[in-house]
Amino acid sequence: MPPLPLPLALTARLSPVAVLATAGWALASGPLAPAPAAGHQPVRKTAGQSSSAPAPTAGRTTYADAPAPCGAVPAATVKSLVPGAGTAGKEIPSTDTKLRRTCSWNALKGYDYRWLDVSFEITESDQAAQKQYKQRVTDKSGGGDVPGVGDAGYSVVNLTTEDKQQTREGTVLVRVSNALVVVTYNGSDFETKKAPGTDEINKGAIKAAKEAVRALEGGRTS
Fold first, then answer.
1. How many Å apart are CA 166 and CA 194, to the nearest integer?
2. DSSP string computed for 112-129
3. Cα separation of 17 and 30, whole Å?
4. Whole-prediction pTM value?
5. Residues 6+ apart with CB under 8 A from 178
6. Which residues make beta-bridge pairs with 91?
7. CA distance linking residue 155 with residue 173, whole number of Å
8. Which residues of 83-107 are buried (b: 16+ CB within 10 A; e: fewer)?
9. Every domain of the chain and the residues it spans
10. Helix (H, G, I), strand (E, B) or coil at 82
11. Helix or strand holding residue 106 (H, E)
12. Paired strand residues for 211
């Protein structure tokens, strides 16, 4: 059976130019559709931060540099989440690698397409990171808290359809002291034109986020 043509939006994702554009978009506010996916019923927290998280310290800087993002997710996880992708990943150029670094993995295996981005952002203080975290949670309404990761964690999943092709995308945002970890994970099936289930995408994004946080904490500077 010959390969099916890719929808325009996903064809663009497979080009190097679109890779850069996608990464910039994800770092600014996340590539999310305005409406949450059906069936996704997260536990909501009005403050956008888990109740057990410590209060941020304005002058403290735990992390001075963004770690290497392509080594943040184990090869086994990459193979599981993005079948057919090279486990080394591809780091996206950044204007300041001390403050922001992103790695991407993407592959089309048969008719199944998957894309994973992992980003680290370093802010000037815990307070600055908390402010950014709260703003992004507000911008990405419809999700819920992710317990047991960093000082605060949040996930949201959305479904979009273009030319009858569904794509489901999940984003996880985690604050760890003065650092933010942002993970984006999405997928499509070009044979059925359906998207992977909400649970699959959400769990995959959370798994990658937890491993990225462990990598960040392993390089703690103070």
1. 5
2. EEEEEEEEEEE-SSHHHH
3. 18
4. 0.74
5. 60, 61, 62, 63, 122, 123, 124, 125, 126, 128, 129
6. 103
7. 6
8. eebeeebebbebeeeebbbbbbbbb
9. 8-34+54-218
10. coil
11. strand 100-109
12. none
Contact between 101 and 67 under an 8 Å Cβ cutoff? The reply is yes
Nearest to 104 by CA among 211, 174, 185, 193: 185
DSSP per position, 113-177: EEEEEEEEEE-SSHHHHHHHHHHHHHHTTT-EE-TTSSSEEEEEEEEEEETTEEEEEEEEEEEET
Tell me the sheet residues that pair with 144: 155
For 38-83, what is each residue's pLDDT tens digit?
A: 433 333 343 344 444 455 545 557 899 999 999 999 999 999 999 9
Residues 39 and 2: their CA atoms lie apart, in Å, by 34
The Cα–Cα gap between 207 and 147 comes to: 12
DSSP state of 90: E
Residue matched to tokens 């600055």: 128
> pLDDT (tens digit, 9 = 90+) per residue, 112-154?
999 999 999 999 999 999 999 999 999 998 999 999 999 999 9
Could you give the CA distance from residue 188 to residue 146 in angstroms, rounded to a whole number? 24
